Amino acid sequence: MYEGLRVERCHHLQRICLEDVVSVDKTDEKSGWSVLQHPPYSPDLSPSGFHLFGPLKQHLGGKYFSDDDVVQHEVLLWMRQQPKQCYAAGIGALIKRWDKCINIGGDYVEK
């Protein structure tokens, strides 16, 4: 299949799928935060960076990148431009969700 794409539709191989490139980075130890393990089978307890994916997808939408380095540069540039309150809101929402999970004994509850 790859060979067929390479020959007949080589322009598709130059595109990079954003879902495969964008990943959630682990918290830097310098921040002083404790990295908590994500509870298994709790779709309501998304990682704290989840609230960034929609706006980041909108920012990157319709753009094509020649390689991974260009994508990573664009994502880092976008993240640096976000106000600190944006990140604080994500952490605050995660705290509320984890507190809810603890209070209900770890059971999943629909919103």
Overall description:
With 111 residues, the chain is mainly α. The chain has a domain at 43-110. The protein has six helices and no strands. The chain has helices at 2-8, 10-13, 18-21, 50-60, 68-81, 84-103.
Bin the helical content: 40-55%
Overall body shape: elongated
Largest sheet: none
Helix-strand pattern: HHHHHH
Q: Low-confidence parts, pLDDT < 50 over ≥5 residues?
A: 16-24
The assigned structural class equals: mainly alpha
Strand content: under 5%
Terminal Cα separation, in Å?
Answer: 42 Å
Q: What's the alpha carbon Rg, rounded to whole Å? A: 18 Å
How would you state the average pLDDT, rounded?
A: 72
GO molecular function, one term: nucleic acid binding
Protein name: Histone-lysine N-methyltransferase SETMAR
InterPro entries: RNaseH_sf, Transposase-MT_Hybrid
In short:
This protein has 111 residues and is mainly α. The chain has helices spanning 2-8, 10-13, 18-21, 50-60, 68-81, 84-103. The relative contact order is 0.15.
Topology readout:
Layout: H1 2-8, H2 10-13, H3 18-21, H4 50-60, H5 68-81, H6 84-103
Provide tags for this entry.
Histone-lysine N-methyltransferase SETMAR, Transposase-MT_Hybrid, 111 residues, nucleic acid binding, RNaseH_sf
